């Protein structure tokens, strides 16, 4: 398989089932961000929460009108590209495929599957229980009800928000709509804790319906912890007793500090957080 | 130079000054739509309105924090890739360049220049004075004040809107914010005419500040025609006496029909439209 050295380069790549490190300049992912992606944690050699990632990909493909490849084929290619790698990150890009000039999707389009594997970074590999420091971002979330929730390739809002800081001690930044409603972190979903109840923003206008967000809603229900999916603003953050962030690579990040305010991590519902981490970042 | 046959394939390609038809899978344009583009009309061997395209690219690069290449270098590469081609389309993609995993832009980033040339389609080459039929689109425009106006690569809203129809007799579709304000066509800007005055929507929340939109505002002022840049809704369209669309490839498209309603093209300010077409689609 192709190996590309350099800045945070992938260890291995499969393009439509074949090793490679270059892509046709006709690909619509390049021209318009016309496609979807999934970032999947590898643990003990297995892709964690595979089915949730496939479910979201299916939903996204339906929304964009991209033919969804057979998930058995995707699973086989995922197994091939991760062969022998126990820990790390598996990224899948599903592009609409090649096209001519202009926005109109080609008919028929031949979707392209791109798998890349990466090692975990040191930040991703460290003890999650220590919590992270978080900041507020200025860049607003892009709003489009038709694109909200799915993990499409139009991610300039997150790119610009993430470019707002380079202090390595700050792990994440919170993003809002222009009108002030909290949506998510640049690469995480957000849960507020008031001591008895969880709250998280809907992802119906912007943001991504994270796989671990879905897992959190389910596990909380199973543990008898209420979780409200509701619009939240800066005032709600100020009133929160604690908060945590979720994504598929780190699982769960308790927030130790937000915009200078420190939180007592002991206040968080650790029974939920522990199960969440187990479910998100271990092969079980 | 590389030549790629197939569906609406480009005639020639230059990647960072060299012929090629493949791009590194590490390019951030592919992963996040992290870049900008320009689509430029070629007439009598020259790129029309070159300076306007460069001005918008500079603005976009500033907004995204991408190092803008020397415009003299871009002009030289444009001349090389279009050598011997009198009519057609020149597309320039400026990507942030290669990067590792994650939204954070690499420091330093090495932006990538991609030039592609295409022939004009038969629709683009025909007599513009006949006007075009236009429809209403359901897909809303993506809203983000930080990204509005510039020609970035996050174009899924236009892709989905353009996928709403495949009737070749319909040339364009109008797009709105979720809240009902008119923004633009999928690939054009829109001007309404009430018999004395022009009106066009601002591009401060979504949409692109088209080069021919800018030209229209200037030419109208020079001809003593008032043009209001103002929020417009469906009712404003219903009341309009006529409308026309602008973009850099077709120049200007008078609207003959919108969503079944027919317009008398003779009502339009043809002195403006003629000069607009001349300025947009001829080398002078």
Question: How does this model look, in words?
Answer:
2 copies of one chain form a homodimer. By secondary structure, chain A is an alpha+beta fold. Chain A has 2 domains: 12-120, Aminotransferase class 4, branched-chain amino acid transferase, N-terminal domain (D-amino Acid Aminotransferase, Chain A, domain 1, 2-Layer Sandwich), CATH 3.30.470; 125-281, D-amino Acid Aminotransferase, Chain A, domain 2 (Alpha-Beta Barrel), CATH 3.20.10.10. Chain A contains 8 helices and 16 strands. Chain A has helices at residues 28-32, 50-64, 71-81, 122-125, 156-162, 211-222, 234-239, 270-281, and strands at residues 12-15, 18-19, 22-24, 35-43, 46-47, 88-95, 112-118, 132-136, 170-176, 182-185, 189-193, 198-200, 227-229, 242-247, 251-258, 261-262. In chain A, a hairpin with a 2-residue loop joins strand 1 and strand 2. The relative contact order of chain A is 0.15. Chains A and B meet through strand 3, helix 1, strand 6, strand 7 and helix 5 of A and strand 3, helix 1, strand 6, strand 7 and helix 5 of B. Strand 3 of chain A pairs antiparallel with strand 3 (22-24) of chain B, so a sheet runs across the interface.
